[in-house]
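Hello support,

Our group uses your service weekly, and this is the first time we've seen a run hang past the timeout. The protein is Polygalacturonase. I'm not sure whether the cause is the sequence or the server load. Input pasted verbatim:
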Amino acid sequence: MPNAAAATFNVLNFGAKADGRTDSAKAFTGAWAQACASTQPASIVVPPGRFLVGSITFSGQCANKAISFEIQGTLVAPSDYNILGKNGNWIVFEHVDGVSIRGGLLDGQGTALWNCKNSGKGSCPSGATTLLFSNSNNIFISGLSSLNSQLFHIVINVCQNVMVQGVSVTAAGNSPNTDGIHVQGSSHVTILSSKIRTGDDCISIGPGTTNLWIENIACGPGHGISIGSLGKELKEAGVQNVTVKTVTFTGTQNGVRIKSWGRPSTGFVRDVIFQDAIMVNAQNPILIDQNYCPDNEGCPGQASGVKISDVTYKNINGTSATEVAVNFGCSPKNPCSGIKLENVKLTYKNQVAQASCVHAAGTTLGSVQPENCL
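Update from on-call engineer: The timeout came from a worker crash unrelated to the input. Re-ran successfully.
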């Protein structure tokens, strides 16, 4: 039987070059093939240095359920955004079980693509997500940094039992569609102790997400932590059992947000807790927007079918950059119910902020400022 050392695969031994110029994708897939074939736990080592890697997919099913990527260096995306930009994804794990990523920096080199998009030229590719886990179970991501993704930084799609901790996400505040961590169609996902600075949602929560725990997050710049947008499709899985706890929002466009399209849908949001949040000059600290309709196309005059119920906001304090700090804009056909505000204190320019409640019903506990409108 091979000893434990035999199950360590260094990408240098498969031809990877730490020069930042030679595409080492084949070396990474070569190391993966051997780690995946190993009947004992396997470790893929990426030593210090910059490794250029084009689009790459790591697929199961593997002979073991414990493959660890130990990344001491940096993975660099191609500088020409057209290489990845039409692909949609840069680094993909699909149908894997028991994969962990420890450490490392993923440099998406997205700045040029953002500039193209922000210039309004219109001929830019949509871009690539930096790291995608799809249809996978028992995933552990720790100490990973994602820099300047073209599109989303990290996506968890149709996965079960995922732990993300100590992650650092960095992109410019004006970088378009660079969500930090996006979760959809997944259950039992935990995101802990991470710092996210980006141009879109720090964390976005898509349809079919259940049993999600988010705790100890620094968010900003960015668009806040968002459930949604939901209800784009007529038949859509709901979101339930979500806890967002101990988050600081600094200069964000939103704080805690639930967003749905203003059109018919079978979607829902229920059993959500936003707790122990600090707002530092955040716009829209508490927001439900069920009238989302970009460019007013595809939903004229229609009401959202997404049913929002049993959402608690507890111990949310700080400063709002908008006069209306609590804004519940719910669906006229499916009003929000079971909204609970407990010990909320938000100020605007050293004055008590304002609240707006449309088609929303619920209760308050303790001290709630702005004056409750439920």
